[in-house]
Amino acid sequence: MDDLVSRAIEKFLREEPTLGWVEAGLLPPGQMLHEAALRSGKPFDELVEDLGAWMVRQDEIWRLLRFCGQDFLDFLLRLDELPERIRLISDDVNLPQIALSRSHDGLLWVTVSDGPPGWTAFLSGLLRAMADDYGALCVITRTADGICIDVPDSAFAEARTFRLSPRASLG
């Protein structure tokens, strides 16, 4: 698991010039992120949130995520399936359990159980990027209880076109 995660973090740090490069392979993933946060002066959770948003820009990851739902609300309803979907790519990556609930005021809550430090921040960045990708207008807030999502308009803007294969014709 550490190799796959380390490579993703190394690529993220290389592509984000303001973060200050951390020597590849010399540190475990969490320590690489802490070092990059220190060098850049950026709070750790903010850096990890940026990593989550960056992951959505990786074509293979984006396709896997977009395959999870027709729109952002559908994607959220299937979020608990994400750990199993990631195992389609690699069975070495252990993701925490993800649960979605709705509060009495209609807000959606994502909770993560047994996740490593920063996982909620990572997921928050990923959700923010996916909301943009689907064209949803929403407010995503990290709290001590999890991630609160308010979606006043799930079709605010045009969603990015999705085809399962990058070679699929428009046809």
TrEMBL record:
It holds the Pfam family HNOB. This is Haem-NO-binding. Gene3D superfamilies: H-NOX domain. InterPro entries: H-NOX_domain_sf, Heme_NO-bd, NO_sig/Golgi_transp_ligand-bd. Residues 31-134 form the Heme NO-binding domain. It comes from the Bacteria. GO terms for molecular function: heme binding. It comes from Paracoccus sediminis.
